[in-house]
Amino acid sequence: MSSTPSLSAQETIDLFERYVVPNYVRFPVVLVRGEGSYVWDSDGNRYLDLFPGWGCNLLGHCPPPVVEAVRDQLSWLIHVPNTWYTEPQGRWAEALSQRSFGGQAFFCNSGTEAVEAAIKLVRLHTPKQRYKIITFEGGFHGRTLGSTTATAQPKYHEGLGPLVAGFLYAPYGDLEAVAKLIDDQTAGILVEPVQGEGGVRIPPEGFLSGLRRLADENDLVLVFDEVQTGCGRTGQWFAYQRFGVTPDVITLAKALCGGLAGGALLAKPDIASSLRPGMHAATFGGNPVAARAGLATIEMIERENLLERTRQLGALFEERLRQLQGQCEVVREVRVAGLMIGIELDVDGAPVVEDCMKRGLLVNCTQGTVIRLLPAMTLTDEQAHQGCDILADVLKAQAG
């Protein structure tokens, strides 16, 4: 088929209703094109996207260096199994290792797969009788059965029992509760350094370092789920660097390949070796196209100094949104970590999302009352102010 839409918006929606499993709640809009922080629908309407690709499009829609790298790779080699070596995957692993803690990479296709790999690695690395993993209330780790069980939110567990054994839940930020859960069957701790789907929850001072101490004292594997925070989202390559606490394992996806599907696990070499041959695999993981996209993403971030740009944009959003908090009574709290932005409201957030969309602005609501923004690093100041202006008008209208 051509890239030019041949169906009307309603015809496309009807096609979905007939042939696509209805497991998503979708807006009645058909998107056809994206460039930078803008997307266009099939009726020609343009939207400023402050939640591009659910956080995957950290470089904006269709970043040219990624597009060019993928086009080039498609003419050479699209996919081969991991029973062979390819230079792009090796170079990609090297690039990630050099920008992190010197770990080794396992490649997959998504965040939930990276978390599944981490769960297996934690259990394989520790003595057989140790299998329990501590996770945190409000966290989110994916949709497969293991990662869903690791997600300590009951709404995601409904109808899926029995769940995977061995997961224990602690309140996010509560070190004392974590310490009480540790016993001689505990193998590891899995935590988002900043909770994303949970509402952009930033850890209290000393919490992550306290988890590192508990892991060291009890010989546990400490895993940071950086699926949303990684690849520069918080203004550092990885959020653990922002907080000065180094985990044993990190999981990555979303922005890893500049908008293409790709996931990874990075583990310290002495731990990585426990994921031995035959114990885990991903057929498409680390394929040449994803690897080239991942390398192009890293190169673009460094060439255009986008980590610093992220910090600048984060400061801009924080200033504008804190001003709004002082002017608008429905804004309860503003939480900013680079370009992870949460605006907690005293009212339902769904109407805010809908009203913003009517005015050409795309945002997200999570946890019912938190407006979540995950803008692109390539966003301009003008676009950031435009988005804040629209959001301010909508929230002030909600306040009455």
Question: What keyword list fits this structure?
Answer:
13 helices, Aspartate Aminotransferase, domain 2, single chain, 400 residues, Aspartate Aminotransferase, domain 1, 2 domains, alpha/beta, 7-stranded mixed beta sheet, 17% strand, 4-stranded mixed beta sheet, globular
Describe this structure in words.
Strand 5 (132-136), helix 5 and strand 6 (167-170) form a beta-alpha-beta unit. The protein is globular. 37% of the residues lie in helices and 17% in strands. It starts with 8 loop residues before the first helix and ends with a helix. The longest helix is centred in the last third of the chain and has 22 residues, at 306-327. The relative contact order is 0.16. Helix 3 packs parallel to helix 10 (288-303). It is an alpha/beta fold. The protein contains 13 helices and 15 strands. The protein has helices at residues 9-19, 64-74, 87-98, 111-125, 145-150, 175-181, 207-217, 239-243, 269-272, 288-303, 306-327, 350-358, 381-399; strands at residues 31-35, 38-41, 46-49, 104-108, 132-136, 167-170, 186-191, 221-225, 249-252, 263-267, 331-337, 340-345, 361-362, 364-366, 370-373. The strands form three sheets. It has a seven-stranded mixed beta sheet, sandwiched between helices. The protein folds into two domains: 9-62 and 305-399, Aspartate Aminotransferase, domain 1 (Alpha-Beta Complex); 77-303, Aspartate Aminotransferase, domain 2, CATH 3.40.640.
